[in-house]
């Protein structure tokens, strides 16, 4: 995907019935959370000091809670076994090395294991990659670099200048933050370029134009960042210039989410257009063409759309809204359309060709282009297939399907620009991942890598059920369990959800879930609630802003359905989710605590009356609404978990964790949630990793510890008999 105006995954469409358009209101907020109540203003929030990320008082609070919570969980006799199992899995060397094609046909990989905790950037050939033990050539050792420079560098990727790709821009994060330092690297000498491009730490990006020119969107000083904390200005930076000397070519608005620049290149690496993306909000944007004279021209595209690929001169675009093109053609939400690029740039009224129109229960979950073809992962009822599309001289597109396993998750990976080869991943909840190398010109596909089983799935099954949400919408969910599971409500069950930003929860193989939970008799459930993209953009758009409560009701309906089916019962049901999913957990805790006995709340959003004032929060107003607008504040206040916490409720002991270095979702959300719960007299386990960023794991050892802490907690709450009180 080249342009992501929505800053989210491209997906397809679904139709909603009139019943699905209704909404059941949440229960009234507690009296103290109404006007003038707890944390409805800065003056009524006693825990604002916990938003001081590195504040002395706040960090003392964190250290105290870490000591106490780690003492409880690491002191459990089961922790060490779970920790060793998690460590063995995450540091295993028999993982599939994910690879990306270089322009010359070689493959790159970034790899972490017990010896390479921070990781190593390395390369090999396709033929070598087919071997059981590929011959890797190290490009950059991040552990050695960190040791030499006294830094905790976390890899955030590299971009190399086509077509030779000898000069690269490497993105390095301090401890896992989204903000990165960019440094120029020479792949030939495997060294950083002396007096090369160096951009100081900032959120934003940089793209190559030519060997001596970059398009840069960074923090250029006061007035250069949006209220969301992302770049507002794009500059052209020439070699030898300082950032102050770079020429400004585009300036957005402070209320935008972000502005960035990039080049649209053909399969030979030739620039066909230089483009600037203005993210007006999280889902709407504009694309401007940077002209040779330095002026810009706004392109005629839907506000909700993505430029996905350039295939044989055809520009492929997905629209996430109904749209009438300048040609007069009408397109539907989720359509994939294409234009002849040169003709369209010369005349925006050039007719487009409809490439794909997904059905009601279909969604596009991935797309990439080889030299000559478009490769698409298309899902029906949350099960995927891979289709290959190719334009003919008349602009019409043919379609074939790759011969791959059925009823699984498929992912379209890196594609070659030299030929029509593409990597495709295949996995299921009980099926270890396999990586295919497909030649989409011939239709052949061979398995080049496959994982050994990481847990004993003998006798386990996967079932798909539907729950009925409060407004009548059917919500699908998957249940993974041992086939001889008793249907008597006794099964320890973990329900996972996310429900936002059009991110789909697709069937996938998780070795840690399998080993640390399923193998031990646990049941794992994944809810495909609205807010995700499982049935396309409409599935997501049905719960935006004033309709957010629908997604909470979807998740709660799945929990209730699990109990109604006697798969589990309240003492044995726990929930887990992070980020937006952490908001899900907060809503479950404050609205339906009677359904659960455990909640793992990961790097959460919790204070929704202040989310837009913390770090990247303002960028999510399109998802949730704006608390500064009274009408929208009223929607949010009805479900904001922080304000809804109250005494005398059947809240279980929860496990909340976050990261000090998370510069996307502010750690203050998690801290304040724990502090408020404790004030009200509830037991809380709280852990904050002092590195790690939004993924809460700066390295594999920390990742293993976090996983072990989670499953120790879940064991105590859901597996112990009687269940923990």
Write up this protein.
- The structure is a single chain.
- The protein is built from 14 helices and 40 strands.
- With 725 residues, it is of the alpha+beta class.
- An eight-stranded mixed beta sheet has the order 33-34-36-35-37-38-39-40, with helices on both faces. Strands 1-19-20-23-24 form a five-stranded antiparallel beta sheet.
- Helix 2 (79-90) runs antiparallel to helix 6 (511-518) and helix 2 (79-90) crosses helix 14.
- The longest helix is centred in the last third of the chain and has 20 residues, at 700-719.
- The radius of gyration is 25 Å and the shape is globular.
- The relative contact order is 0.13.
- Mean pLDDT is 91; it is low at 1-35.
Give the topology.
Layout: E1 3-4, H1 56-74, H2 79-90, E2 100-101, E3 107-111, E4 120-124, H3 126-130, E5 137-141, H4 142-149, E6 153-160, E7 167-174, E8 180-186, E9 191-192, E10 198-202, E11 205-210, E12 213-217, E13 233-238, E14 247-251, E15 258-265, E16 271-279, E17 285-290, E18 296-298, E19 305-311, E20 314-319, E21 323-324, E22 330-331, E23 336-340, H5 341-346, E24 353-356, E25 362-369, E26 374-380, E27 383-391, E28 397-401, E29 409-415, E30 421-427, E31 434-439, E32 444-450, E33 460-468, E34 474-482, E35 493-496, H6 511-518, E36 523-527, H7 537-541, H8 548-564, E37 573-578, H9 580-591, E38 598-602, H10 621-624, H11 630-637, H12 641-644, E39 654-659, H13 668-679, E40 684-689, H14 700-719
Parallel strand pairs: 35-36, 35-37, 37-38, 38-39, 39-40
Antiparallel strand pairs: 1-19, 2-3, 3-4, 4-5, 6-7, 7-8, 8-9, 8-10, 11-12, 12-13, 13-14, 15-16, 16-17, 17-18, 19-20, 20-23, 21-22, 23-24, 25-26, 26-27, 27-28, 29-30, 30-31, 31-32, 33-34, 34-36
Helix pairs in contact: 2-6, 2-14
